[in-house]
Write a structure and sequence with these properties.
Helix 4 crosses helix 5, helix 4 crosses helix 7 and helix 13 runs parallel beside helix 14. The protein is of the alpha/beta class and about 575 residues long. The chain starts with 6 loop residues before the first helix and ends in a 9-residue tail after the last strand. The chain has a nine-stranded parallel beta sheet. Strands 11-10-18 form a three-stranded mixed beta sheet, with helices on one face. Among the domains are: about 80 residues, no CATH class; about 80 residues, no CATH class. It binds 2-acetamido-2-deoxy-beta-D-glucopyranose (3 copies).
Length: about 575
């Protein structure tokens, strides 16, 4: 979580539009040490620095490692091992000693910012489930007592199969055995202490363990792909990580209500670069997917996505997210033999050679399109700053022809409307990149299409009631049979009401028209259709425009596997 928004206000009007990256998430790595051939911590610390890696997680509070990371500026997440959990939960003084010895003793030289209390407790030590939140509470109280509670956040890594019914995402919920007893108080604790939910989400394992044919490799890797639709929300997913994250957000909402949401980090994720499935996993569809090429694709997609600021999901487009790749090294003590995929998650070989190319310092563009969003001007900054934003946008590539006198979007002729038009055009032209909708505070991003932004090209296709029900029905049948999306006008769906022939025909005609990119002649329907240039009102049903609806496959029902 990286709140870094305030800087630009200080610069004020003199240097108004230095574009800066405010929303980008942060990327880290997991420094696992289940191996007998790894370099010493000092060499590892240098390796992290050389590669511009700014966050690292370790699986204990090892003094040698913490000393080696001193004065590097690297943020460090330490962990209370599961073995200590029961004592830490039972006795606040044990928690205090742990925090003194493994955290306070190294601050501020070593920038410890997170304490994980236990590791995947529901998986590895379910006998400790009920001790988890008391242990977290005791660790937090120890931090308060030592004056460190602002600098250091307390969380606990949760394996993804705590979430069940995760496909489609909107059905996601926490498992019954932990939902009310552990997850609810834990989420409340995380909210209260300004911390975050730490999920270990591995699209690799969900792909590996899938029901054959339900998950494509590109979807799992985060490569460009045609997407899958959650039929109950109509949201389209282009990445399995997004689907798993949203299942987690929906699960949270079922416990906390839809407004409270705990920031969520993917604290362990990665893709195996080689080896074979162990006996435990043998025969699964995805066993062949462990390869250097796939690991490189997955991890680079993740790095580019997070560092370019594309941290939201279809359901929570404005969510922030950090992620930690598992793992820094191939670890020869993991799994059940030299060939086990579990030994091949490293970004580096133990000799510190990269397994494949990746770059934390110069991320490329996000491979998955960011959620649809718009940039609107902020009336509160006053006319002068709106004018400055307008001038800057029009001078730097925004298409401002539509707001010239006489053009379609000249009215309403207000500075606010023109500024919104211009900053949004600039933002869309910049590919909605992080930091391109700030304008020194004169604009902000929204995720619902704003009515106030005029689209000079917008048009819709609606049905003419005058042609009579028979001709409307014939045209409606034709449109639905020729590529219009008629799902939303089925009984129970979002545009079934108003249940009239003219309303249903308008929906279908417009869908056909938009899907054909509003080409001339695609709103005729033998005289039953008409193009209109103002958004039509049909009850509560909104006729889609601008975005062409994508052809996608529905998500299957079930749960994504986590290991
Ligand atoms: C490091 O180890 C890998 C894997 O064993 C090997 O392919 C590579 O050549 C080694 N690099 C160096 C510089 O020794
Ligand atoms: C409107 O259409 C023209 C011509 O197709 C295109 O160049 C322009 O980018 C469009 N403007 C917007 C805001 O979509
Ligand atoms: C998924 O579950 C929903 C709700 O239970 C059901 O209506 C739908 O038919 C199921 N879809 C599949 C592909 O099984």
């Amino acid at each position: 979580m990286a709140p870094a928004r305030l800087l630009i206000f200080v610069l004020g009007a003199a240097l108004p539009f230095l574009l800066f990256h405010a929303e980008a998430g942060e990327m880290g790595v997991n420094y696992g040490r289940v191996a007998d051939d790894l370099p010493d911590p000092a060499a590892v610390s240098q390796l992290l620095k050389d590669n511009g890696i700014t966050m690292v997680r370790i699986y204990n509070g090892d003094a040698g490692v913490l000393n080696a990371l001193a004065n590097t500026g690297i943020k460090v997440s330490v962990m209370v091992p599961n073995e200590d959990l029961a004592d830490v939960a039972r006795d606040p003084s044990v928690a205090l000693d742990w925090v003194r010895n493994h955290v306070a003793a190294f601050l501020p030289a070593t920038k410890i910012n997170v304490i994980s209390v236990g590791n995947e407790v529901f998986e590895s030590r379910p006998d400790l489930n009920l001790q988890l939140v008391p242990a977290m509470t005791n660790v937090h109280s120890a931090l308060v007592q030592l004056g460190l509670a602002d600098a250091v956040k307390v969380t606990t890594p949760v394996a993804f199969n705590a979430v069940t019914d995760s496909s489609p995402p909107s059905s996601g919920r926490f498992r019954d055995d932990i939902a009310q007893s552990v997850m609810k108080p834990m989420l409340e604790f995380l909210l209260l202490t300004g911390s975050f939910l730490s999920m270990n989400i591995y699209p690799f394992f969900a792909y590996l363990n899938q029901i054959p044919g339900t998950i494509s490799l590109d979807f799992a890797l985060g490569n460009p792909n045609s997407g899958f639709t959650d039929e109950s929300t109509r949201l389209v997913y282009h990445s399995l990580l997004d689907a798993q994250l949203d299942a987690t957000y929906y699960a949270q909402e079922k416990l906390l209500g839809s407004n409270a949401i705990v920031p969520t980090s993917d604290t362990e994720c990665g893709w195996s670069n080689g080896g074979k499935c162990s006996l435990r996993l043998e025969g699964r569809v995805g066993c062949g997917a462990a390869s250097i090429a796939n690991a490189q694709a997955y991890n680079n997609n993740l790095i580019n996505r997070i560092l370019s600021g594309n941290t939201g999901t279809p359901h929570r487009p404005d969510a922030d997210m950090d992620a930690y790749i598992f793992a820094l090294f191939n670890e020869n003590g993991k799994g059940s033999g030299p060939d086990d995929i579990e030994r091949h998650f490293g970004l580096f070989y133990p000799n510190m050679t990269k397994v494949y190319e990746f770059d934390f310092q110069h991320p490329g563009p996000s491979p998955v399109p960011p959620a649809a969003s718009w940039c609107v001007a902020n009336a509160a900054v006053g006319e002068d700053r709106l004018q400055a934003a307008l001038d800057f946008a029009c001078g730097h590539g925004a298409d401002c022809s539509g707001i010239q006198p006489g053009a379609v979007c000249f009215e309403p002729n207000t500075r606010l409307a023109h500024a919104s038009y211009a900053v949004n055009s600039y933002y869309q032209n910049q590919g909605r990149a992080s930091g391109t909708c700030d304008f020194a505070g004169a604009a902000f991003v929204v995720f619902q299409e704003p009515a106030e932004i005029c689209d000079p090209n917008a048009s819709w296709c609606v049905a003419n009631a005058e042609v009579g029900d028979d001709r409307l029905q014939a045209a409606l049948d034709w449109a639905c049979g020729h590529g219009a999306d008629c799902g939303p006008i089925q009984p129970g769906a979002s545009c079934f009401e108003p249940n009239t022939r003219v309303a249903h025909a308008s929906y279908a005609f417009n869908s056909y028209y938009q899907r054909n990119h509003r080409a001339s002649g695609t709103c005729d329907f033998a005289g039953a259709g008409t193009v209109v240039f103002k958004a039509p009102k049909i009850g509560n049903c909104v006729l889609p425009w601008r975005a062409v609806i994508e052809e996608t496959t529905s998500m299957s029902n079930g749960s994504y596997a986590s290991i």
